Amino acid sequence: MATGVPIKAVVSTYGTNAKTGAAVVAKKGSGLTKDPHSFIGKKVAVNTLGANAEAVLDTWFAKGGLSKDQIKQVTLVPLPPLNTAQALSQGQVDAAYVGVGQLKAIGEAVKIDTIVKDSDVVGFYNGGGFALRDDWIEHQKKTDRVLVSGIAAAVDYIESHDRAQVLKVYTKWLRDNGYGDGVEAVEKNWNGSNGVSSKGGVIADKDIAVWLDWLGSRGDVDPTKIKPSDVYTNEFNPGA
Fold it and tell me: For the chain, which domains are there?
């Protein structure tokens, strides 16, 4: 909506489930603890501001008793995921919010402590995924159904098969389609799940409501004028 183009989410492709999820991590010996007060005056790396990472952190800080003024004393540092391990290792940041795809790689590069998981803060949820323009949804329903059904099938395959089976299919596709350079990184870093918490990436009101509440607390949206169902549809998902 930031571009002025009406869109709706149609299927989720990552999130937090019983297998995996994002987490706040710190270098071993950092002195940071599960008490959010220990983060006051510290720097925390996030992949971007105003999104999932900041929402989870703000929610955790507030639940832990930090005032708004104290939360402002925690500096969030936008940092590309590829640079996070180095920043932690060199003490350029004190902690980092690490996504599903980063945890394995960062844990191998730096000795870390997991401070809190996002599921500890907001429970299991579906995060981002695919969104389509409203006008496309209206006029391309057959294509919408094929696209979303295919993505949903891939989501279910990933979550119902072990890591080795998924990698066998995925890396073959990468090589066959000219993306062989990415195989090594995928085999090394992917932990075996995208964290999707529902069949086929079906979206639920709760997946949206947690972020609407946070955006409302910041004054970015008026929660009384927007419902979770306004921004997504499961119309094309066979899992729904």
Answer: 7-15+126-231 (no CATH), 20-123 (3.40.190.10)
